[in-house]
Design brief:
This protein is an alpha+beta fold and about 280 residues long. About 15% of the residues lie in helices and about 45% in strands. The radius of gyration is 22 Å and the shape is globular.
């Protein structure tokens, strides 16, 4: 937290801004208490109305990003407790992955590769090499997020997996966002909140037909990257899966977009002396 001195305030003059801020906050809280409702944000002029148009725009935005390479800090809360680690992540559409979990000394502990339906995972600690289909369960053997590779790629690219068939578009006055509702016939449904300025995804909820939360994605701290001034991407990504008691946050430290990735990055062979197992 920045100190008052960091803002050039003197010891005496620092109190006035704090008092005004406190008074403003008190007034806001009083207003909420008196009205019983949080403040509302009006929609922008000429607000969008067509859910299909917005759905297509979100797809087009995502399609402009084809690959990413970078390093992130990850914090994982699960049944096993709290696990922080560093992650080297390389991803490319539609379903190509190269992930390395690093030790506190930046040494690889596990390396996962996936491409066109197959995956390999090498645990350096166990000297164990696994290979088989790139299912959500197999991908989750490195990072316990049971997502298919294509959905994980979408997330690493700063977007969200998007269900087909948009149903409804409304303005959410408490968030100041568009809310797009998408559903599958007799299947899961999606509620997606979008920034009105550029339709950047802010949050996505995936629910069962009965309304049970399957998982939630929050995309925070959006900013542009060098060479891509027209696209804002989240620096912080949060994933919540209540049924599995999983909460994960990924904060990018650095990354490059739309870079050329050599084909060799998407596969690996078992090192000499490793135990090899095929998974179903």
């Amino acid at each position: 937290m920045t100190s008052p001195e960091g803002h050039g305030w003197t010891r005496g003059s620092g109190r006035a801004p704090a008092c005004r801020a406190a008074q403003g906050l008190a007034g806001l809280l009083l207003g909420v208490l008196l009205t019983g409702c949080p403040p509302t944000i009006p929609p922008p002029p000429n607000a969008l109305q067509d859910p299909q148009q917005v759905h297509l725009a979100v797809q087009a935005r995502a399609a402009s990003l084809q690959s990413v390479r970078g390093e992130a800090k990850v914090e994982l809360f699960s049944e096993e407790g709290y696990t922080p680690f560093s992650l080297v992540a390389v991803a490319a559409r539609p379903d190509r992955l190269h992930l390395e979990v690093l030790s506190p000394f930046d040494m690889p502990l596990g390396i996962l590769t996936a491409d066109t339906g197959s995956f390999q995972l090498y645990s350096l600690e166990e000297k164990l090499f696994l290979h088989g289909p790139a299912s959500a369960e197999n991908i989750a053997r490195l990072i316990p997020l049971p997502l298919p590779p294509a959905e994980l790629v979408e997330l690493l690219l700063g977007s969200v997996p998007l269900l087909p068939d948009p149903q409804e578009l409304r303005w959410d006055p408490t968030r100041g966002c568009y809310e797009l509702q998408v559903a599958l016939a007799e299947g899961p449904r999606q509620r997606l909140w979008l920034d009105p300025r550029d339709l950047t995804p802010r949050e996505s909820r995936y629910e069962s037909p009965t309304g049970e939360l399957l998982y939630r994605l929050q995309l925070e701290e959006p900013s542009t990257l060098p060479g891509h001034p027209g696209v804002r991407l989240p620096r912080l990504i949060k994933v919540e899966m209540p049924a599995r008691e999983i909460e994960l946050s990924l904060r990018w430290q650095d990354r490059e977009l739309n870079v050329e990735i050599p084909p060799a990055a998407w596969t690996q062979q078992p090192p000499r002396g490793a135990e090899v197992r095929r998974l179903p």
